[in-house]
């Protein structure tokens, strides 16, 4: 009981002293009273409440009341307690409440270099004469230095970016009760940054006892560009900073990726599983009506340089052209085949024959990696893929592109909405960065899935063709690096959670899209027949093909199964060399 009465007496005395101080300063202009209560939380965050009493300060605040929160490099200049001096100290604030004369008021927080500035009330208009009381409540991340032996809090309460004198300033630090009082070391200071604006004789500093057991210091007559700062250290182990604290704080952002994942999961269940493959039975002829390029399209789900090589081999076997290897290039000559042979060609073979000789009866194909050859060879592969898709796409399998398109549109809608409303140190470019990251990330991801991953898989398996993949892979790395750079900027300007949310959205779309691909019952039956035919070629025909084919031989004299051997990736000299020459140029996956 006596203890409680003593606390009450101290409280009344402190209030009386504050009122007495206010009575002494009421005739002054500027900030007549300032108090900051800083509560240290065990998760290494701070809860700060600032109170200002401003009197006749129109000459100081000509453009509205502006408060520079003490988190900028000018306010955390002492390298003994902070990292190197730079604008972004990795401090983040979340403003919880702003009032003027006891009523909530509109405010605007700056971005980038002006992130620490808060404009309260009307901007670009001088503050009205008379007395006004302002209060700001906010939380702070990353202000506490966690050390191996001792933790440090450096708090420059008023801040240096101010041309207004402060008649009386109080800062109170509330530490967790678990920290023993006798282990806390305190270094108070009043003055300007470094040796600038030194403390004058009229400025006083004293420690004040309060019933709350907080560490409280009061300074009087604090001049412009001066501040009241405290440095507190205490033994480590009482404060625990999580490296993923920002992810937990902004965890609600991951509701969008979670909803997108659930959408794809439900769609995957509704689509159902693919028909199972039956027992493998040897087949002695290719499936009826399937050309070599079609066989590869159904078996591998792709159109690439091997498809192109199979088409050329088929045209040669049918007597439509002659192939000669001259100085590392393939010389194709048009032959006068009978009308029946050309009529029986598959659509993609007819189209390729027409494109090859549209400028003359002889054409040279080069596997060189220059832009002209890459574009020319890619053009042939593209038209082959176009014909195959037209004939087979929806009949034998589907990618359920409608579901994927809806998922992508949802991704853009959610991410851009979050970018527009993003808050952080510098969220000004969040919308543009988000748009660029999503667009380029999806394009690059699709290229990797549909082109480079299959091409690299084949190159690693066969041991050839990987050199031709290096330029394209280098371009992918460049774009990937640009995306990573923008993600780092977003993490610094907005939050780590926002950047991680964008990466999660990209991965969900890119990982789920291939999983929605399904073969139809007919497609599965044909794939079983193709697998049986491949087994027959590999076990029975492989030796004969290798004996009858040489790299320099003319394919006109070769077996009718040669184009299918090329399409199904069976090793044989001429076809394998031709296929690998163009394999790395273009791969289009269905």
How does this structure look, described?
The protein has 590 residues and is of the alpha+beta class. The chain folds into 3 domains: 2-241, Immunoglobulin-like (Sandwich), CATH 2.60.40; 250-259 and 401-515, no CATH class; 291-399 and 538-589. The protein is built from 15 helices and 22 strands. It has helices spanning 2-25, 245-249, 255-271, 292-300, 305-317, 339-343, 347-356, 371-396, 401-420, 430-462, 470-493, 496-515, 521-548, 562-567, 573-583; strands at residues 30-40, 46-55, 65-68, 92-100, 103-104, 107-109, 117-120, 131-141, 144-145, 150-156, 166-174, 185-191, 204-208, 215-222, 227-235, 302-304, 321-326, 329-334, 362-365, 397-398, 518-519, 587-589. The strands form 6 sheets. An 8-stranded mixed sheet has the order 5-4-8-2-1-11-14-13, with helices on one face. It has a 4-stranded antiparallel sheet with strand order 9-10-15-12, with no helix packed on it. Strands 3-7-6 form a 3-stranded antiparallel sheet, with no helix packed on it. It is elongated and about 110 Å long. The chain starts with a helix and ends with a strand. Mean pLDDT is 81; it is low at 1-26 and 549-557.
